[in-house]
Amino acid sequence: MTVNIKDVARVAGVSVSTVSRALGEGPVSAEVREQVQAAVRATGYKPNLSARRLRSQRTQTIGLIVADIRNPFFTAVGRAVEDAAYRAGMRVILCNTDEDPAREALYLTLMQEERVTGLIFAPTRATLDRLQADALDFPMVLIDRAGPGGQFDTVLLDNREASATLVDHLVSRGYTRIGGLFGATSTTGVERRDGYLAAMAARGLTGEARFVPPSAEAAENAAAAWLRQPDRPQALLVSNGLFLTGVVKAARTLGLRIPHDIAVAGFDNEPWTELVEPGLTVIEQPVETIGREAMALLFQRLRTPDAPTRKVVLSGRCVARGSTAALPRT
Amino acid sequence: MTVNIKDVARVAGVSVSTVSRALGEGPVSAEVREQVQAAVRATGYKPNLSARRLRSQRTQTIGLIVADIRNPFFTAVGRAVEDAAYRAGMRVILCNTDEDPAREALYLTLMQEERVTGLIFAPTRATLDRLQADALDFPMVLIDRAGPGGQFDTVLLDNREASATLVDHLVSRGYTRIGGLFGATSTTGVERRDGYLAAMAARGLTGEARFVPPSAEAAENAAAAWLRQPDRPQALLVSNGLFLTGVVKAARTLGLRIPHDIAVAGFDNEPWTELVEPGLTVIEQPVETIGREAMALLFQRLRTPDAPTRKVVLSGRCVARGSTAALPRT
DNA sequence: AATTTTTGTGGAAACGTTACCACTAAGCAC
DNA sequence: GTGCTTAGTGGTAACGTTTCCACAAAAATT
């Protein structure tokens, strides 16, 4: 049926082992290498990666498990990971969990069955607790979410700092009654909440944090309910880019003007955050760097399996826009 | 090292073939199946997918080659494809070409080496011409872009109709000097251009179409140059969601109000198109359906390889918003 | 010149599965 | 009871590679 290395060997007039060496590395005379390459062209031979992986015990595959590729943060990180992987001659298997622990478990065993070289994972809090390093046969790098203790290599944003930056920014613009909307399923949400509460407390303010399920709709509903209250906050700190669409939509629906009736500050510097009037103040995450750094950590771990685990904490960049314009003195 | 089927067989006290049958399908006594499952649990056995694929000659893998997963259209389609695939017990290999024919060729041979069961592909015009069905060892479904003649199964938007709908909409709102901005590398851009020109001609209007490379920056630059002209159009028809961000940004930079100074209508109903004032009029593509339908076509092709090829043409939905508000009578 | 090392090659044994074949024992029809 | 099917099982040959080993010839070292 399909042409294999044996056919190439026959056409080239050499042994299969020579063909294998000629295609990979290994001592082969220039002359023979020519012949083999000619035979490959003549026969249209394409190596069978399953066979290669089985025999060599190297899959050259890395797994990437994220909540939802439609979340622009993960899209960008995913793209960076893929680029780095393909540049290193590796493939990527991408899985979406929708923050569902059951699916996380499912995909985790899939990764085992694929015998991936390594895994990049953004787990929910629920599975984070269940993860034991020794249960996996490959190194794992956590992104966006941190585990307890230095159990795994990790790369994430300095979430506490980022939240504090936003709080500082809002306070400096005159806002004091600031609410916070955070994702319920990730440690990211918790960290951002903590940073927010700490920064508020440091300024003698009391914050109110609310947690919502990880979807734009949930955020919209929560924001709508909150903003309908007579004692609604003056400003809302919003934990991610998905939520931001929901919050802005809720404000629009209720006829509230940004920032006049409600100021908004959030995370993820998506292109549209600049375009929606009056521009949304956001923390820009170094998404490319996160993806690349995760791959770098993975490769280093593969090279030196017993090195101490590393946690790369990256700082966000605050992009101030009209959604947090200074509150007029009353 | 890692536990294999032989180990399980030994622990369960049966032969390897029995273990294989017990895990897959095949006649196995209930009693033995129990024992095998117990042995699997005891040993922590995880089947090796490379071996399974090599032996069974079924990879259960489908390839997905798109321009850029960061383009929200492809993100959504990709997500739908993945869901359908994983539901069918299949894996997905995702590749980004950035509309680069060289990378398309690279990934096409990768798909061959992976021995994928099938491929879903959004090719550039350049490779579309080069594609010969007989050169591939697996069925391929084209999405978003159509090849010449019914050579491949295809699922895409009715681009001509969609463009015409937008033109009609703009004309009915009083616009006559309407320009069009289209993607240069895809048939999609060409089809939308054709539909636009035809609809303009049908109304006795002359259109002007410009092609740009597939990036938001390119669209922004092109739009800025265009809108700086004294005889700039009253309205712009914009070929995709990526371009839309660029066009809106260009308008903002030049201080042009939408729709007062420049009306905008485009493609892809992203969440933010509703949020950017005064709301962008867009054609909403049935992205989920496109992904699902592509998978469906693929599975049907696998079942009946010799059936005539099918082309599924889906209609877009026009979502009218403020960016095309009626032109005041002068 | 004798030796050791290097280079290039072929044969064959893996890698971990599944699928084919052969076989036994049991069930069923006559 | 004889034949015939069927369920359940084990042995073993693939699947298409890479890698180990052996070996010859050439090159380098002594």
UniProtKB/TrEMBL annotation, chains A, B:
One GO MF term: transcription cis-regulatory region binding
Domain of life the protein comes from: Bacteria
Pfam families: LacI (PF00356), Peripla_BP_3 (PF13377)
Gene3D superfamilies referenced in this protein's UniProt entry, alphabetically: 3.40.50.2300, lambda repressor-like DNA-binding domains (1.10.260.40)
Keywords on record: DNA-binding, Transcription, Transcription regulation
Domain HTH lacI-type span(s) in chain numbering: 3-56
Full protein name: LacI family transcriptional regulator
